Structure formats: C-alpha cells, structure tokens
Amino acid sequence: MQEKILIANRGEIALRIIRACKELGITSAVVYTPADKDSLPVKMADEAYPLKENKSYLNIEEIINTALKNQVTAIHPGYGFLAENSKFAKSCLDAGIKFIGPSAKAIELMGDKAVAREIMKKAGVPVIPGSDGEIDDFREALKVADEIGYPVIVKAAGGGGGRGMRIVHTPKELEEAIQSAAREAASTFGNSKLYLEKYLQDCRHVEFQILADQYGNAVYLGERDCSLQRRNQKVIEEGPCHVLTERMRKKMGELAVRSAMAVHYAGAGTVEFLLDDRGNFYFIEMNTRIQVEHPVTEMITGIDIVKEQIKIGLGERLSITQKDVKIYGHAIECRVNAEDPISFIPTPGEIKKLMLPQGPFVRVDTAVYEGYTIPPYYDSMIAKLIVWGRNREEAIIRMKRALEEFVIGGVTTNLPFLRKVMDNAFYRRGEVYTNFIKRRMEPLT
Ligand code: ADP
C-alpha cells in the first residue's frame, strides 16, 4: 500500500520530515493553522489540509478527523505540540493510523519523570539522589532534602522545556519553592506532581541518541553535549562530547539502550544524563520523540535519523547494527531565535532581509524566508545552523564564519549572542557546564 504520512507539526521540523518522505518515496501531507497558511511546509508537502484555529496543532480530534478524511496511513508528530502526548499516540492507533513514535505506554511512563526515575533505578541505570517517586507534601520533601543535602532541585514530574524547576539552597526556601513550582507545573503542564533531586553544580548535559525497532533491536548513535543552556533550555548543542573517553561512551550508550528497552521502546529517542567532572553520570529523563538537535548526530554519523525513524514507525526492521555506527569529526548546532537578546522575550514580525550562510559543511534547517512574517503564536526558534568540522576546533571556526554570514533583518535575533559564544575563551577550551551563560556570558549586552 502507498503510505501517506501526515505531519502534525509546523516550521522547520515539518520541512525536515517532508524531505525525508520525498527521499523515501512516501506521500507527505501537512496540517496548517490560519497563521501558517503561507508557510513553506504548506508549499512543499504533497498535500496540505487547513485546521480551524491557531492552536489547532494541539487538537487531537481535529487532526485525527482530518487524517481520516484524507486517507492518511501514518502520522508523524515532530517535536513539541502532541509529540509526547500518549493520548494522541493511542488515538492514532485507535483510528487505524500508524503513529511514528513509540507506544502510548512508553510515552506515558517516560512522560512522568518521577516514574521514569524509578524504572531506571530498577533497570540498574544510575539516577541522581532524590525522592522515591513524587513528593506528596512539604514534610516529606524536607526529610529527603536533609538526607541528600542542599542544594536540591524541585522538578515537575510532567515538566519539559526547563519549566517548573526551582533550585533550593536552604530548608527555609523549600516550602515556597514547592508551592511556586507546583503552580507553574499546573498551569504549564496541567499536572502539579513534583519530585526532588540533588542539585549538581558544574555538570554537563550529555544525551544519547538511540534508534530501536519494534522487534527489540536497538542501537545508540553516540552522544550530544547540550550543556550550553539558558534557563535549563538548550541553545547550542555539539557532538561528540569532548570529555568522554571511548570506554565511557560505550558504557553510557549501552545504559541508554538499556533505559529504552526497560519500556520496550521503539522509534527514535534520546536518553539524557548529567555528567560531573569526576566521571559520574546520572539519568535525568528520556525524550520519546525526534529532537531539535538531531542534525548534530546526523552530521557525525552520516545516518538520516528521520528516515530511519519513519521506516521503523512503518514497521521495518532497523537497517543498522551497533558495529555500523561510526563517529566522524565534530558537529555544532546553534538555535537561532527571534527574541530580545536581554529579556529573551520573543520578537515576532516580518523578516525583511535574509541571507543564509553557505559553503562547505554548513547546514541550515529553517522554514523562514525573506518576506515571511513570524507569527506570535508559536516557538521563537526560526532556524538551526549546523556545521561540521574534522575536530572541535575546526567546527568552532566554521561556526563563527557561518554566523558572520548569517543576516536576518527586520526582527531582533540572538545571532549576536551566538557569535559572542564562539569567541568566548571558556567555550573554545570546552569548559562548558550547564551554568555557562550565567557564569561566563553575563551581564548580557
Ligand atoms: P526538561 O524536561 O524541562 O528539559 P530536564 O530534567 O531534562 O528537564 O533538565 C533540563 C536541564 O535542567 C538539565 O539539562 C540541567 O541543566 C538542569 N537540571 C535538571 N536536573 C538537574 C539537577 N538535578 N542538577 C543540576 N541541574 C539539573
């Protein structure tokens, strides 16, 4: 049967998936909201179906009905929106449509980060000292915090995007932190469940890309270092992580695969760890979708992750084994955001001038074009700039050159900030911990 994949997403990731479909000879379709009617995915997909409202990318019923009306055989959720909504995955299957992602059960288990911690503990994967599952009240939190020692971090079990977290340095601050984290979690994720972890200072965020098919075969495609974050959200990612030895890579990669297998995972996924300077590492969460930063891994492995993900989702076996995975050189990705450089408030509006960087080993994933108006309703990320070099030093020089070529007129972006990072001596030496921006870049000017 000829497959027809509906992309329940927008922007650069919708384009990325359309491209994968074209190379696989699969019909691609997108849904789009009124605000996105002039977007590139609508122009580039084989088919495009309108949705009613600007928030319709979150409307399960409307998307499934649209898919059924148009003989769609599979749905790709991209990232964000419904990508990690287990109800959506289940609704697709109930409607007889394949969901390009793991089972609803795997999404549900990993989507509750307090539950995921417990599953990992049982599977023998190290987790950060903290609460056993969720914390029910302040007294319990106080007891756990006393045991593990301050500082601690209060985190939302259903959290994502760095939201719903509070670092706590003394017992006195704990109650207020719990209340405000619960409030933020309830309003952002509709789930006020919290858990507690020891807060690790000077650590790196190191995550492993994995691919697993529906028949129990799985591989890891090396790691990405995503330590360069602003308010616990990634800004620059790179791979490989330059402080990992081959032995550590193998150990962490195998544990990442074990993490995924613990929930019978199938699809593309990412297992995230925090790594300290003494080589201790701890599971923090698993993302059950394609990630923004997947191109970093594509550049260093030569593997098209989205194509593999689609094939797996359609029921094919993994086409590679661990032996086939080789890491070449170094790749860096910068997230280009339309935002104010100091307040980070999004700056939607018309892109009056656009010149994309080019040249050898430079990749730009974007859905914007000159004359395009960035709508105010969605994410502020408007492009991803990815470069490859034979080693980290060459990749940094190339990124600096590519960022200098990049011109976006009409809206304010973080391009000047990204350029500054490439010139930062600590960044160049690879002394990048998750507190890098606060410690090495502030005050922002
Ligand atoms: P989210 O799902 O919101 O992305 P994560 O659990 O993946 O949340 O954490 C995001 C980031 O927050 C991490 O990369 C790290 O910088 C910081 N963080 C989370 N937990 C801890 C911790 N226990 N200690 C120190 N930093 C942490």
UniProtKB/TrEMBL annotation:
It comes from the Bacteria. It holds the Pfam family CPSase_L_D2. Acetyl-CoA carboxylase is a heterohexamer of biotin carboxyl carrier protein, biotin carboxylase and the two subunits of carboxyl transferase in a 2:2 complex. It catalyses: N(6)-biotinyl-L-lysyl-[protein] + hydrogencarbonate + ATP = N(6)-carboxybiotinyl-L-lysyl-[protein] + ADP + phosphate + H(+). SMART domains: Biotin_carb_C, GARS_A. It comes from Carboxydothermus ferrireducens DSM 11255. InterPro entries: ACC_Biotin_Carboxylase, Acetyl_CoA_COase_biotin_COase, ATP-grasp, BC-like_N, Biotin_carboxylation_dom, Biotin_COase_C, CPAse_ATP-bd, PreATP-grasp_dom_sf. The lineage of its organism: Bacteria, Bacillati, Bacillota, Clostridia, Thermoanaerobacterales. NCBIfam families: accC (TIGR00514), PRK08591.1 (NF006367). One of its GO terms (molecular function) is biotin carboxylase activity. Residues 1-442 form the Biotin carboxylation domain. This is Biotin carboxylase. This protein is a component of the acetyl coenzyme A carboxylase complex; first, biotin carboxylase catalyzes the carboxylation of the carrier protein and then the transcarboxylase transfers the carboxyl group to form malonyl-CoA.
